[in-house]
């Protein structure tokens, strides 16, 4: 691609400033978004892309270009978007926020249209640099939008051909992505309209999870014993029950009643150990009623603290090795 000499000169003149801007933004935002589990991407605009952008005719001067440097934050759902906007407002001077769906478009059109924030670094009195005059862009995409973008953009919008069929297919995929994002955004409300088909194992899981919540609410369990994720804890417990063939209809209610009665009894007499995880504690309860099975389907988390309550558990063949 032939690049005008004046653009090459202007690009090279600003390259070191853009690199400083990039390093500044990355050093600020990457730790913040990494801690929150959000993916962060960034790039300096290539001179070829810049030349193409100028030829769109939308910009009146070099200083109007707002994405010489741009970064993207990828969030799980649309529910996370406002948090990102608040973070950007906290650290940068906001020039403009272009919210998704703020551009007029026909209802049957589906195209790239995510939230973009145009920013500048906040001046420091003790530091004088033209870097503070540069504008940069922060895009906010959902994980689904990002997947659509990287999957279709290069082969559809930046190819050496114009294909009605490819454009049509990309738009159809984008329509599905937009619908999925809206379903996730309204997940709690939308799930209320799903017809429920009772599944016995899930009913028992829900019953047990609700009972565990009660034990924490009435302080039968100390708060330190609460798992990070109660639903994951119940899933893991059911793997133990499955390994011991205790999920049969004639067994599960009996086991459920036994476990809850033992927990309630230990709670009243302050016998619930705090040296064990909640699942380890329930393993101890189960081992009082019957011998736990040696099965290759489940590796028990048997530690010295567990063995102190039941030495026989050290004889299990399949034990997780630390």
Polypeptide structure, described:
The chain is an alpha+beta fold and 322 residues long. The longest helix has 32 residues, at 5-36. It has helices at 5-36, 47-54, 81-91, 143-156, 164-185, 187-191, 200-217, 230-243, 249-268, 278-289, 304-307; strands spanning 39-44, 69-75, 93-98, 115-120, 136-142. It folds into two domains: 5-186, Beta Polymerase, domain 2 (2-Layer Sandwich); 200-315, no CATH class. Helix 4 packs antiparallel against helix 5, helix 7 packs across helix 8 and helix 8 runs parallel beside helix 10. The relative contact order is 0.07. The model has no long low-confidence stretch (mean pLDDT 85).
The unreliable regions are none
* Rg, alpha carbons: 29 Å
**Which range does the strand content fall in?**
5-15%
Number of domains: 2
Name of the CATH homologous superfamily of the largest domain? Beta Polymerase, domain 2
Average pLDDT score? 85
| CATH fold description of the largest domain | Beta Polymerase, domain 2
CATH class of the largest domain: Alpha Beta
Biggest beta sheet summary: 5 strands, mixed
How does CATH name the architecture of the largest domain? 2-Layer Sandwich
The backbone outline, from C-alpha atoms, is elongated
How many β-strands, per DSSP?
Answer: 5
Distance between the termini: 59 Å
Helix/strand-derived category reads alpha+beta
Strand order of the largest sheet: 1-2-5-4-3
How many distinct helices? 11
Proportion in helices: 40-55%
Q: N-to-C SSE series?
A: HEHEHEEEHHHHHHHH
């Amino acid at each position: 691609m032939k690049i005008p000499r004046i653009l090459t000169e202007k690009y090279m003149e600003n390259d070191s400033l853009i690199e400083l801007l990039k390093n500044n933004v990355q050093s600020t935002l990457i730790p913040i978004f990494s801690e929150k589990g959000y993916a962060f991407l960034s790039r300096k605009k290539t001179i070829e892309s810049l030349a193409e952008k100028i030829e769109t005719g939308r910009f009146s001067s070099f200083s109007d270009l707002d994405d010489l440097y741009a970064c993207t934050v990828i969030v799980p759902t649309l529910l996370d978007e406002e948090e990102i906007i608040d973070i950007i407002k906290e650290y940068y001077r906001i020039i403009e926020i272009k919210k998704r769906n703020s551009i007029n478009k026909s209802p049957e059109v589906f195209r790239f249209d995510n939230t973009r924030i145009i920013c500048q670094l906040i001046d420091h009195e003790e530091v004088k640099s033209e870097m503070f005059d540069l504008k940069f862009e922060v895009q906010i995409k959902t994980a689904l939008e990002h997947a659509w973008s990287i999957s279709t953009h290069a082969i559809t919008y930046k190819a050496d051909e114009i294909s009605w069929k490819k454009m049509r297919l990309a738009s159809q995929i984008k329509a599905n992505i937009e619908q999925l994002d809206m379903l996730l955004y309204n997940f709690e409300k939308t799930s209320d309209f799903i017809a429920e088909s009772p599944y016995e194992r899930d009913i028992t899981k829900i019953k047990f999870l609700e009972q565990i919540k009660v034990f924490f609410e009435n302080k039968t369990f100390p708060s330190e014993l609460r798992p990070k994720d109660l639903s994951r804890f119940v899933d893991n417990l059911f793997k133990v029950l499955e390994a011991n063939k205790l999920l049969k209809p004639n067994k599960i209610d009996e086991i459920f009643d036994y476990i809850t009665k033992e927990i309630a009894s230990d709670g009243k007499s302050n016998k619930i150990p705090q040296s064990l995880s909640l699942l380890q504690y329930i393993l101890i309860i189960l081992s009082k009623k019957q011998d736990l099975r040696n099965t290759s389907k489940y590796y028990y988390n048997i530690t010295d603290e567990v063995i102190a309550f039941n030495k026989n558990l050290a004889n299990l063949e399949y034990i997780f090795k630390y």
